[in-house]
Hints:
Organism: Luteipulveratus halotolerans
InterPro entries: AAA+_ATPase (IPR003593), ABC_SmlMolc_Importer (IPR050093), ABC_transporter-like_ATP-bd (IPR003439), ABC_transporter-like_CS (IPR017871), ABC_transpr_FbpC (IPR015853), Mo/tungstate-bd_C_term_dom (IPR008995), P-loop_NTPase (IPR027417)
Enzyme class: translocase
Largest sheet: 6 strands, mixed
Strand content: 35-45%
Order of helices and strands: EEEHEEEEHHHEHEHEEHHEEEEEEEEEE
Structural class: alpha+beta
GO molecular function: ABC-type ferric iron transporter activity; ABC-type quaternary ammonium compound transporting activity; ATP binding; ATP hydrolysis activity
Number of domains: 2
Keywords: ATP-binding, Cell membrane, Ion transport, Iron, Iron transport, Membrane, Nucleotide-binding, Transport
Number of strands: 21
Radius of gyration: 24 Å
Helix content: 10-25%
Amino acid sequence: MSPVRSPGAVEVHGITASYADTRVLTDVDLVVPAGTTTAVLGGSGSGKTTLLRVVAGFLRPDSGEVRIGDATVVGPGTWVAPEKRGIGYVRQDGGLFPHLDVAGNIAFGLPFPRRRHRGRVLELLDLVGLDASLADRTPDQLSGGQQQRVALARALALEPDVVLLDEPFSALDTALRESTREATGRALREAGATAVLVTHDQEEALSFADEVAILREGRFSQVAPPREVYGAPVDAHVAGFLGDAVLLPGDADAATVHCALGTIAVEGAHPTGAVQVMLRPEQIIVVPAADSTLLAKVASTTYYGHDAMLDLLVTGDDTAYGSVEVRSRVVGTSVPNAGDVVGLRVTGGARAFALTS
Length: 357
C-alpha cells in the first residue's frame, strides 16, 4: 500500500547528481514530513548545496525522483521548471534587488500592480519580526540580519508549501545569527511551511531543525532528530563531526565497556570485543581529587565564559590502556588551572563502535 502523502512534504528517492564527470550525490534518499524542518549538515564538498539545487530545480540529476507534496517534479520523463514547483528559496546572501525598496522586494512575485499588496507586505514583515517602518527602506539601509528576514518574507509571500534555505545565516555575526535564526524558525512554524536548511554549522543544525541529515561524500550517514544524532551517532565520524567527542580504545561485552575511564554501561546496539568507545566531554565530570579513585592532570584549559573545555591526562592503574588524553566540558564558574590534579567520574552511557568505523 502506498503511504499517505502530506501536502508540502519533500521526498527525494535515489538521487544521483554530477557536475561534468564528477559525481557529487550517489543514490540519495530523504523524506521531510510536512510542516517540519530538516537540516542537511555536511562539510565543504559533501554535496549539500547540490541536493538543494536538485530539489529547487536548478540542477537536473543523473537519476532519481523528487516529489513535492503529491506532485512528482523530477523523475523518468518528468521535469517541472523551478518557478512551477511552489518553492520559496532563500540564498546565503539574501539576493535582494538593490533597486527596489523592502516592500517592492517582498511583493516582487505577487501579481501586478504590487502597490495593492501593501497589507500583505506589512503582514509578512510582522511575521518575520520586522517593523512596518522598514517597508520603504532600500536593502543597503538594512543590517545583514534584517536583509535575511526580508529575503525570507519574500520567499513566503506566495505561501509556498516548501522553503529551501541555503546557509542563510552564515554571513552574519554571532549575535545576529542567533536572533535571525530564531525569527526564521518562528516565521516558518507560523506559516506552516516545510523547510530544508543547508548548513555546515553543527550548532545551527541541532538548534534549528526537527531532523538532522548528515551528508558525507554524497551519501547520508544518519538522518534523525537532533538529540539522537548527537547522543546516539551511528559511527565515530558522525560523533566527531557533530560536536566534541572523546574516543578511547576499549573492550565491550553485551552490556558494558571497559576502558581507561573504568567500566561504563553501553547504550544501543554495539559490537563486542575490541571497540572504540565514545563519550561526550560533558559526560566526564570533574570532582575534587579526594572524591574519586580516577585521577587526571589538567594539561590545558580553554575558557568560553559560559563554559570551559579541559584537556586532561588520565594515568590509570590499568596497564592495558595506559595514559590517555580526554576532554571535559565544565561550567565557566568552576574551572581548574593547568597542572591541577582532579578526580573524574563518568555520567550516562557510552557508545561503542567497531574499530573500522
